[in-house]
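--- STAGE predict ---
source: upstream dedup step, 1 unique chain passed
mode: sequence only
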Amino acid sequence: MANSLGRILAAGTRGLTRLLLAGSLLAALASGSALAADDAPTRTPAPVSAASDESACVACHEQTDPGIVSDWKASLHGKVGVGCTTCHGDRHTTAEDFAEVRLPTPEVCETCHATQVTQFKGGKHALAWAAMNAMPTTHMLPLPLTQGLDGCGGCHQIGLKTEAEILELKKHGGAFGVASCDTCHTRHTFSAAEARQPEACRTCHMGFDHPQAEMYEASKHGVRYSLQRLGDLPAEAPAPTCQTCHMPEGNHSVLTAWGYLAVRLPMPNDPQWAADRTTILKALGVLDPEGKPTARLEVVKEANVARLTEEAWQQQRDEMIATCKQCHAENFARGELEKGDTMI
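--- STAGE serialize ---
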């Protein structure tokens, strides 16, 4: 996986910049952009080296960043002794050396949450940054639209990045663009309870071009969830969230049968749909004007942005059916999913 990811990141960095529309559509790759996790760490972290170090951090940051201090104090991290230096290192000790602070990446979180990070690295979210960088683009897009906290990068920053990309983001002030886990577990509370709510997904999965949040809220699942919150449904009544179906049992390996723009391979038997799908793939640069595969197809394969075999597609569909069967009859679940297939 590490070698494959390295190839994707390298391919994405070599001059394939971003198109705002393509980047926005790519935010729909993942099926639920909130990472659910157990309330307790997988492993008990080592205590901080010295309580005085944490006191010094708190004393200073209560003056400059009171919000993050209050969040940390209220968090599970704060209560079990996961202090500032545990995640940020101990090289930043004065107001002048702030550039030395370590900005946590998934590898830092992995020290305690190994299972969740391993799952995350096997799903779509981890590849979001590389997928954005691999898309065709126009020129001269402002940096904040692609690599900052707004536009494409605002959501695709959840993906893993190379060290060079992290350094570049820090140089341009995109300090919060290097992390992944805090996309759903907002710093500095890093709450698992927050990440289990559909609102956590809404920060990315919404809008006119990928309105998953709006569709969920208008669905029976979303309506029951809202009514349950209002007290109009019993607490034990089924009221599925995004995570219930797309991250069963807190599994961070988010993946779906239909990938980017609902395009997959092999081509369908319907001639018109096959022609339309070919047009889409040409526009994305996956196929050349003659319909032959380009180098970008290899990036698409590595980034797993679409199911490229019937078997891969069916595996994801079967996993979703198994999830649906926890509440619904199999025939009903299969029929509902096939309705969506027909609409596509």
